[in-house]
Design goal:
Blueprint: E1 5-8, E2 15-16, H1 18-32, H2 39-45, H3 50-57, H4 64-81, E3 87-88, H5 92-101, E4 105-113, H6 114-125, E5 131-135, H7 146-154, E6 162-166, H8 169-178, E7 181-185, H9 192-198, E8 203-204, H10 208-218
Parallel strand pairs: 1-4, 1-6, 4-5, 6-7, 7-8
Antiparallel strand pairs: 2-3
Helix pairs in contact: 1-4, 3-4, 8-9
Length: 221
């Protein structure tokens, strides 16, 4: 079966956002009088949306209302900072160009704020991304399949012809919950071992390997 739709995670898969996320988390922590976090700590906190990021960055036992308040501050700080150091991973633009040449529809599903997802896709990828969705009131975040299904609906895509690509155990579980095929990537925020443990069967180390996989394994007459 030939895949005509590929849906990507954003942070850690298409975009290297770690520096801007770390700077924004630490700007909030410093402003609010909390201990700063290292880049590797922030890397381990990413994956379940802004609130979980702040929950993990703040001291254990921080009250819910304080987490909510700091999350609201973070949203503004990050929106101001999110394009300072962020960039596509090496090889991503070339990969997207080749996918479009193959007439493959491309979507993005992320757990970061919907407005930031759409702005990031517009700024860095333009017309390469056909539709994108992030954290919004209308669907549950990953690993729930809601937003993945919404993107598939927008693209008129079907499970058997859709592939999901991501860098984390959350992405593996999202694909499993949606019952669609998955490819894990190792250049993002999580290790190969964590992807394997989560159940990823196919893992790549470079963006151009996805094109090779499509030719070698996925495309049939």
């Amino acid at each position: 079966m030939k895949y005509n739709t590929i849906i990507f995670d954003l942070d850690g898969t298409l975009l290297d956002t770690l520096d801007d996320l770390t700077d924004s988390v630490n700007e909030v922590l410093k402003q609010e009088g909390y201990q700063l976090r290292s880049k590797e700590e922030v890397r381990s906190f990413i994956g379940n949306g802004y609130r979980k990021l702040l929950l993990r960055a703040l001291p254990t036992g921080t009250p819910d209302e304080e987490i909510d308040r700091c999350t609201a501050v973070f949203r503004k700080v990050y929106y101001d900072n999110m394009h300072k150091k962020t960039k596509p991973y090496d090889g991503i633009i070339d990969m997207l160009l080749e996918l479009k040449k193959k007439d493959i529809m491309i979507g993005v599903v992320s757990n970061k704020l919907d407005e930031a997802v759409r702005e990031g896709c517009r700024s860095f990828f333009g017309s390469y991304i056909d539709t994108a969705i992030g954290d919004n009131p209308n669907g549950k975040n990953k690993p729930a399949p809601d937003n993945l299904f919404e993107v598939m609906t927008r693209l008129n895509a079907h499970r058997k012809t859709t592939l999901y690509v991501g860098d984390s155990d959350i992405d593996v579980k999202t694909a499993q919950n949606a019952q669609i095929d998955f490819v894990g990537v190792t250049w993002g925020f999580r290790s190969r071992e964590s992807l394997i443990t989560a159940g990823a069967d196919i893992i790549i180390d470079l963006p151009n390997e996805l094109l090779g996989l499509l030719t070698q394994f996925f495309i049939s007459d």
